[in-house]
Amino acid sequence: MILGIITMSTFNNSTETSNDTDLIIESDVIMPSKVSRPGCEEDDRCYIPSQIVIEHGKQVIWINEDSAFHSVTSGFYGEPTELFDSGHLNPYQSFSFTFDEIGIYDYYCTLHPWMDGQVIVE
Ligand SMILES: [Cu+2]
Fold first, then answer.
1. How far is the CA of 42 from the centre of ligand 1 (A)?
2. 2-11+19-34+41-121: what fold?
3. Distance 5 CA to ligand 1 centre (A)
4. Which of 2, 44, 58, 119 has the highest count of CB atoms within 10 angstroms of its CB?
């Protein structure tokens, strides 16, 4: 379990002071910053962790911690399986999917062909 920490800044116009609020968002897999450029695939860090093992019936939560859009889409680039597709995730948006069936599920990002990951359901 990875806890992503998001700092949200809110500004009070009348006094021009800022308040930082930390939100803890539960996630299992993160899309880290700068993965919108190739390179993360060299050490398998486009999704962290790039492979996750869960029990069937459990969900996986992904969060986009990058400043670019990403997706979590089942299958391989150019060969989606249409089991799940997050669509374009905004920065700090999350997506979850519950895996009921045992199996090995590959997924990728529709925007960045080098980004891939795998969920193993036992
Ligand atoms: Cu991407």
1. 15
2. Immunoglobulin-like (2.60.40)
3. 20
4. 119
